[in-house]
């Protein structure tokens, strides 16, 4: 009997199936420091215990996307080891901050299946939840991937495409208990711009660029215990390139967006996202954002801002797609998320 | 007087000599996170405090090999700075888990000496012990190295070759206090295979590969405060290559072996090992294992499995040596160890 | 309104102005471990809680230069984003050790201004202070940078060049509360040389070299939340090179100086420093030191040694400048500092 994990194939998934993913992870100050070494992370709430306390939290939590990557990474051996493509995200919600000492594990429920017409692949939709040591859900999100079939002759399952929200409504967002931006210190946070200073439709070029290194994306991807071979093994592709984990690009773009959006402190929702083109070492990643929406929340001084975050490997900002409707070759990521910021 | 460390030469060692190595090290969550960023480490006991507690330990210890590297690193300035070759390991025992906050130091006793017939070098055997802040031995092992003589005319010492066990017996292994795999969660651990599912003689190709980067092996080697120049200085060799610390290959192979041996949780003994060929950046490291032996232990639900772990830079698995009896050029490491796993 | 930070220009500074820099940072075991992974740091006081306690401190502090980099990094967006050159340091003082859990922020006071005769740039002197969560100053230093003018026609400010000490006197140094080297363990520290064993004028070649990698200097620079574009963006210069943060060279040289100065445990003062030539990935950094002065302190067993620390990219040690009075091309750094060591 083969002892290694061959990954799951399309016909291994059934609707309603719950997969308990392996290898729980206790996170702490080491993960935090590494996140800040690998990305230009500067959002004050995730940098300073004092700033977090002044915002009503007990201490500085693990960066929102670091928590996401940990939860996501656990799903890879069961969901995307044989994935041909990561097709999308929806209904991502940050439900509870993750603090040093918390232990995270992940479960996924299969909520949609659709065999492709070529009979060689199919699309699997899963709703993944990250749970802490008290079995509280800290993050949940839907993603869908195209997965190979083991046997092209295996019968197709009944097609079920889940009904997903094109975007979370502000009321769908969970505000961390106690969060309060009434006494928010703009100077310490790094920029004077409150939510009121941003207009819907406003576009921001985040200016800075970071050239990607193999050692860095591999360290990040391993830290999240993401095992996808394409990120680590230069012999995996004919061109000898290692494909960079899409989450590395997400974190790079989000942290680059500090310059212009320093007060968009916490990610609260992920409406959708596309990895438009693959990223490789040597690419210099840049980012721009567009304000899609704004809303008040019930928490004192806390607003919610909906942002499009686009990562590029250079090229002009503020353009996404060509006349053919396809992403331009220099666009790496098109992400749609909600962040919490002082009103 | 020269202030820098010239390293020790063969004639500096005397039988029975005890060397107290420098620079004690307090280890903690930062070392743990870096280990998991530098290697694809996924063994649940070293990843989750909850999993460690469910296994009878107070919390998740520092990874077994990270502790080994810290203890080993301290010996380099006194034992292997002038080493021509690391010849072997024997009688390695993990006696006590290392927890965050522990401070490690190392001592070595010279237990064997043999001048080579060329009169230019000799072999030194040392038994190294790693001690914690309570002077408890946490790790002990024997290694032997070939060391240059300062003066070829220095008299040869009496030849003493220590009598070393070809392998530890199961009864030689120390089981951590309280370790209990009775309620072991195979799902969380990542694979369904208990010790009973492995047969003696069984071989496992661990499938995955990791391409080695300069930044990564240097960060690892520095973290263990290993000062050997060949790992850091590209001007040290004529070909401009930096030789990769053998321990980097050991950790890479051991963590790659998760895929197929996820439940071989803790290393308890090191029977022997050879660094068959040097490893350099750009090599893609792979690993295979062979089950050499199995035994019960006195701890509830805990078995001991003896494994050969082989690291390669590609090439066919399951072959080690050519017709000339020498390791094949693609073989990097041949290690023989005992691990603890659920029976 | 542009939301991103354009940096400050020469005419934005006024004498006496106080700048409160953004993004406070809680430091901990993760930062410590990364410092020891990125540099060959081995000074025992910063490596072992036990060694620090035996020296009268409550635990091992964050490495002196790591604390410096954190404080320095915060000033970059306001002081040196548009800097043409970092011209010098003076009157640097380590006033209080930084411990895990401390939160650091920085403020700078403008203490000097001098427009250059070309009217395009000017020199700004700032005294920067790093403060902890109790508003205690932990580090202070003066640095001066050449900054571009936004508008060449902007009027020149009154020229004020601050009166800076060419070097701190021993009496200017602050010894950490409780520091006591009476029972200092030379064996654990790694070398037998006390301050008495060094002569003024003595020169030490630290022998070892480290070849610099892009991933490493970027991780370090990001960890200190230093945002200067030239360190991260390979498209920023015509030659595609990333300029390495001068502080990376300082830390590399200081940690390399362990080999020969293992007992120069803590940096207490920075008298001056020049980044003589830029450093790039691929350079192999080496270091040599010269003993400039020695003094007693009031703390038991604690002496102060004044050292010149020179980093090179190879080439002969112990030479700094050519016949033209300029630094030789292989010299990277010329630093003048006080360290505390056992008498």
TrEMBL record, chains A, B, C:
**Which InterPro entries does the UniProt record give?**
HotDog_dom_sf (IPR029069), MC_hydratase (IPR048274), MCH/BMMD (IPR052342), Thiol_ester_hydratase_Rv0216 (IPR016790)
Among the Pfam families in the record, one is MC_hydratase
GO molecular function annotation: lyase activity
Protein known as: L-erythro-3-methylmalyl-CoA dehydratase
* Species, as recorded: Primorskyibacter flagellatus
């Amino acid at each position: 009997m083969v002892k290694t994990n061959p990954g799951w194939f399309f016909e291994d998934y059934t609707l309603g199936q719950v997969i308990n993913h392996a290898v729980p992870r206790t996170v702490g100050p080491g993960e935090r420091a590494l996140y800040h070494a690998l990305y230009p992370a500067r959002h004050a709430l995730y940098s300073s215990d004092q700033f977090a306390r002044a915002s009503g939290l007990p201490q500085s939590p693990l960066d929102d996307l670091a928590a996401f990557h940990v939860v996501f990474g656990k799903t890879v051996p069961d969901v995307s080891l044989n994935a041909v493509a990561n097709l999308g995200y929806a209904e991502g919600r940050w439900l509870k901050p993750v603090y040093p000492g918390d232990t995270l594990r992940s479960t996924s429920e299969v909520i949609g299946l659709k065999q492709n017409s070529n009979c060689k692949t199919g699309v699997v939709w899963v709703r993944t939840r990250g749970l802490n040591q008290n079995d509280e859900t800290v993050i949940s999100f839907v993603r869908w991937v195209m997965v190979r079939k083991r046997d092209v002759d295996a019968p197709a399952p009944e097609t079920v495409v889940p009904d997903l929200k094109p975007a979370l409504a502000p009321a769908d967002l969970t505000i961390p208990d106690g969060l309060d931006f009434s006494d928010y210190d703009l100077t310490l946070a790094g920029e004077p711009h409150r939510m009121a200073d941003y207009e819907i439709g406003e576009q921001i070029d985040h200016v800075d660029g970071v050239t990607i290194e193999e050692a860095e994306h591999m360290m990040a991807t391993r830290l999240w215990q993401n095992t996808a071979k394409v990120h680590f093994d230069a012999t995996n592709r004919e061109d000898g390139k290692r494909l960079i984990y899409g989450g590395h690009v997400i974190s790079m773009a989000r942290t680059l967006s500090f310059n212009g959006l320093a007060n968009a402190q916490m990610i609260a929702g992920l409406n959708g996202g596309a990895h438009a083109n693959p990223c490789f070492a040597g690419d210099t990643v840049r980012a721009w954002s567009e304000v899609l929406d704004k809303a008040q929340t019930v928490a004192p001084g806390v607003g919610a801002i909906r942002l499009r975050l686009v990562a590029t490997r250079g090229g002009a900002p503020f353009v996404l797609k060509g006349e053919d409707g396809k992403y331009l070759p220099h666009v790496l990521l098109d992400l749609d998320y909600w962040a919490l910021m002082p009103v």
